[in-house]
Amino acid sequence: MYGAGDVRVQEVPDAAISEPTDALVRVTRACICGSDLWPYKSMPASEEGARMGHEFIGVVEEVGSSVATVRRGDVVVAPFVYSDGTCQFCEEGLQTSCTNGGFWGASGVDGGQGEAVRIPQADGTLVVLPVAEDDALMPSLLTLSDVFATGHHAALGARVQAGKTVAVVGDGADGLCGVMAAKRRGAEQIIILGRHADRTDLARDFGATDVVAERGKEAVTRVRELTGGVGAHSVLECVGMDDAFTTAVKIARSGGAVGRVGVPQYGALPAARDTFLRNITVSGGIAPARAYIEELLPDVLEGRLEPGRVFDRTVDLDGVPAGYKAMDDRDSIKVMVKP
Ligand SMILES: [Zn+2]
Q1: Is residue 86 part of a domain?
Q2: How large is the angle between the packed helices 173-184 and 197-206, nearest 10 degrees?
């Protein structure tokens, strides 16, 4: 990406192993993230550009001399942050804070929207998938890299519990996966705030019981009507804008919790006084997807959950710029890249 709206497909040096802890992965599936749209909207023009893509599945082509848990030929999923799996934060399940970790596409590391990626810290990062590279489950498996794990993280942050009420702010792929995660944790009532029928229909398929198309104050009123006048026990904030966060707080029940996974576009937490006066817990953050993959994997492998339904378009590498535009125009919920 060379700036707002400027995505180009270019030849770069071949990915290659440089450390004994590296693996080389040929990418078989990748995707465009809602968070990729923030730089797509606002990145200043840059001469050197930025490598893009942080969600991918591929086949291991080669491993460094110290790599022990993956080998050539394995089909693997990469979480959206790489991590060593052994530091104090990895031990605590917070691989996004790994002291030896980092982001794809930054600091000389390849991006996932390409043909191949050098994987730093391969043992701590990659999870082997017991499927062939063209398995029909690929779209759903690919969501373990970020979006389904992020929805799960939102549900945990919002303390979703069986039999309770949940509201989800945002009808993008993260919000839809948040609905699925809330349902998976046994929520009784799941309200999605969204106004695009194709998205809210999918939300219903994923477990939403109510759809609120209103925004702002009207949305708050409507959610309160649907929850006995008091608001939802758990609110998943999957947008990151000031008004979305404010709405999330206002539709939370007193003593409830907001789990935020939308990348904040605000400088200070809005609605601070309301969270104080009504004892609303604000939690969430960047999702340690690596911590959740093993837990979420069986539901996908055994066909109980199909988070891959969030993909409504597939492009090849040459189609990636058009894929960004389609998502930015909201013509597409989420775009899969098949190199
Ligand atoms: Zn670590």
Answers
A1: yes
A2: 20
- Compute, in angstroms, the gap from residue 118 CA to the centroid of ligand 1: 18
Residue 123 CA to ligand 1 center (angstroms) comes to: 11
Neighbours of 182 (CB within 10 A): 33
Do 127 and 153 lie in a common domain? Answer: no
Walk along the chain (339 residues) and give the pLDDT tens digit of each residue.
999 999 999 999 999 999 999 999 999 999 999 999 999 999 999 999 999 999 999 999 999 999 999 999 999 999 999 999 999 999 999 999 999 999 999 988 999 999 999 999 999 999 999 999 999 999 999 999 999 999 999 999 999 999 999 999 999 999 999 999 999 999 999 999 999 999 999 999 999 999 999 999 999 999 999 999 999 999 999 999 999 999 999 999 999 999 999 999 999 999 999 999 999 999 999 999 999 999 999 999 999 999 999 999 999 999 999 999 999 999 999 999 999
In whole angstroms, what is the distance from residue 173 CA to residue 161 CA? 22
Q: How many domains does the chain have?
A: 2
Residue 128's beta-bridge partner residues? 76
In this structure, is residue 201 part of a structural domain? Answer: yes
Q: What is the span of the domain harbouring residue 43?
A: 23-146+288-337
Flag whether the pTM goes above 0.90. yes
Angle CA 297–301–306, to nearest 5: 90
Q: How far is the CA of 325 from the centre of ligand 1 (A)?
A: 35
Tell me, in angstroms, the distance from the centre of ligand 1 to residue 250's CA.
36
Torsion over CA: 80, 248, 236, 157 (sign): positive
In this structure, the answer to whether residues 88 and 174 fall within a common structural domain is no
Q: How far is the CA of 332 from the centre of ligand 1 (A)?
A: 35
Indicate if 83 and 136 belong to the same structural domain: yes
> Is residue 277 in a domain?
yes
Q: Are residues 174 and 200 in the same domain?
A: yes
144 alpha carbon – ligand 1 mean position (Å) = 19
